Amino acid sequence: MTFLECIKMAFQSMKMNKMRSFLTMLGIIIGISSVITISTIGTTLKATISSSLYGMGTDTIDLYLSIKDYEKNSDYKITESDYITDEMLEGLVEKYPDDYELIDCEFLSECTSTTENNTYTHNVMGIQPGYMRYSRMRIIKGRGITTQDTQLKKSTAIVSEVFEKQYCPNGSIIGETISLNGDYNFSVTVVGVYRSKDKLRRYEGGEKDVSTVIYIPISFANKLQNKASNSYSYIEIQPNPGKNAEKLTQQAQKYFDKLYENNEFVKVEAFNYGEVTKIYIAIVDILSFAFSLIAAISLIVGGVGVMNIMLVSVVERTSEIGIRKALGAKSSAIKRQFVMEAIIICLIGGIIGIFLGLGASYLLGEIAKTIVNGMDPDVADTISIVTSPSIPAIIISVIVSILTGVIFGSSPAKRAAKMNPIDALRFE
């Protein structure tokens, strides 16, 4: 009997016993769909954690003050002399010019701007050049805030595209001088326009209605506030593209350890969210593996079900086996037929289980997205649900389905092959 003939006879047998074939598949379907669902949930959680934490700054380094020997110095109050200063940060960048970028930002004030027809209100932020990359700001016209702008305390600014459309509906705002009024009255020259999803709304009757943000060099913001420099208890810096954030975190830690070695009470801690990401992903991997093992038990149960049903099938088809042997069919052909039937049943069940598992995963993903979208916007913006099917799990599921058919179909097939044709023909 050829391979194709085995397949044809297997499908004929399944067609003649549809309910039995379905019940045989059911255990495999449940087992495979469970494994696919759990593995997809695991990969989705990893992708979501990675994406969400990346949005929080896995590529940034947090620097913050903490108390040395807290049990001994718990009553110590941090003073101005303890703070991280611009000079310290600039020293870090000067020492490692190819490694770090400052991303400091400072809220200046809420200011208003006036066009021919309307008055608008804005938040004005002083930023370091690195802040634009950190915030993934996309400049669509002109340029961003540069190091030269910061060093020379230039009165330059970048505004949103919606502000440009309102302020200069028929042309470009690049090079225009804008007067801003509020706690500080000053003028800025627009050098760039950034992409924004915000809507520009009017400032009406003193109602607080912040529409877009205007960004200026942080040094210019300090100048307006009569501040020589900034000092911080907490600040973020960013590794340059292509640099290893974890290694640079250790490097920054050593730099500040040396600066604060003579400070009896305070130290600077350097922290990177990439470390947290690894921990979370490791936990998800462990949980996914544990739940996948539990789901795999249903596969074993399904395999036992296949063996039992195939044994019943052998008994029911005893007369058929006897006739075929009497007509010259070899034991190997009989065995091959029943093994092939078991493989096809398991394979079809496995494929159905894969699609059911993927469907369940995407459904759970959509439910999760709906729940997240119903949260507070500030929280929802930090969570990015990324449904990610596990391709290795799909491939393994197909292989496992075939192996299940081979392993659990072999015993019934051997029993059928060993039947004495005379005894088989006498069976009622």
How would you portray this structure in words?
This protein has 428 residues and is an alpha+beta fold. It has two domains: 3-55 and 276-426, no CATH class; 64-272, no CATH class. 56% of the residues lie in helices and 17% in strands. It is built from 15 helices and 13 strands. The chain has helices at residues 3-16, 18-56, 70-73, 86-95, 130-134, 147-151, 161-167, 218-224, 245-259, 273-316, 318-326, 331-373, 377-380, 391-417, 421-426; strands at 61-67, 84-85, 100-102, 105-114, 119-127, 139-142, 156-160, 177-180, 186-194, 212-217, 231-232, 234-239, 266-272. The strands form four sheets. A four-stranded antiparallel sheet has the order 3-12-1-13. α1 (3-16) packs across α12. The protein is elongated, with a radius of gyration of 35 Å. The protein starts with a helix and ends with a helix. Mean pLDDT is 78; it is low at 198-210.
